[in-house]
Write a structure and sequence with these properties.
Two copies of one chain form a homodimer.
Chain A lengths: L1 H9 L2 H10 L4 E2 H5 L6 H13 L3 E6 L2 E6 L2 H11 L2 H5 L5 H7 L7
Helix pairs in contact in A: 1-5, 2-4
Chain A binds a DNA duplex (30 and 30 nucleotides) through helix 4.
Chain lengths: 108, 108
DNA sequence: ACTATACTTAACCTTTTGGTAAAGTGTCAA
DNA sequence: TTGACACTTTACCAAAAGGTTAAGTATAGT
């Protein structure tokens, strides 16, 4: 599922850092790569992970590929986590309604 | 980092489904395993992933191990995602303050 | 004591991930 | 036109992930 890949993309600190950087505005791939102690192809692979779940869009003009953030998939991730908010907020008076939101499906 | 493991734990639909189940109350391992088309050791491995990042606590009494939800790590994940909320809500009037929240550190 | 239950552990297998190095391609600029 | 730059592609590697089966251990019930 898409949600799988979004959460997976977020499970690496380099990729989260990349999101932090592209959130500030378009960045070139090589510019981005300077921030990390790894080869450029490695950074490109991380961008591939972020791109395949839609978190980062790229646009190549000339020889420069610019990367920008698309936060829409983060909303999907947030919506999923949101269901559990009552548990860490301790609003057990609202627990019932939240439990009803949780699916009762047999298997995934 | 812990956040790595939390997001990683959430990147699998079986594990997310397990969270949905334990949220409803304590469940035994074998009871849980009945829901999935995989062997019991496979389910135990998923529980290991969920346990190692703190999302699921277990308590063995007799020969039965009961699993319960601990949503605290979800709050950490939510806090991270929350920083980006402005991007999918399109509140670009507030963009500036959110950008300041994003860390400016050189490398992770 | 015997047996079924509920895990637990171990060994193994395949695929995916995250990285590398090195060579190739396309574009800009002097 | 020549060279530097910005990727891009390819081939490779080690480790981790997700699953399997099979055997082992501890407890509960008869």
């Amino acid at each position: 599922m898409t949600l799988d890949r979004v959460f997976y993309a977020l499970s690496d600190s380099t990729r989260r850092d990349i999101l932090g950087r592209v959130a500030r505005g378009p960045v070139a791939v090589s510019e981005l790569a300077k921030r990390y102690q790894m080869s450029l192809p490695a950074v490109v692979k991380h961008l591939g992970v972020l791109g395949s779940c839609g978190l980062v869009k790229t646009d190549k003009v000339g020889r420069v590929r610019s990367c920008t953030l698309d936060a829409a998939p983060l909303k999907a991730a947030d919506d999923w986590i949101e269901t559990y908010r009552v548990f860490w907020e301790g609003r057990f008076d609202r627990l019932g309604e939240y439990l009803n939101e949780l699916s009762e499906d047999p298997a995934p």
